[in-house]
Amino acid sequence: MDFSLYRTIAAQGGVFTVAQALDSCSDAEVRRLVRSSRWRRSPWRGVLVDNEIHDSFGVQVRAASLIVGADPVGATGPPRDCGASTFSTNRPCTSSGPPGW
Question: Lowest-confidence range among 26-30, 49-53, 63-67?
Answer without folding.
Answer: 63-67
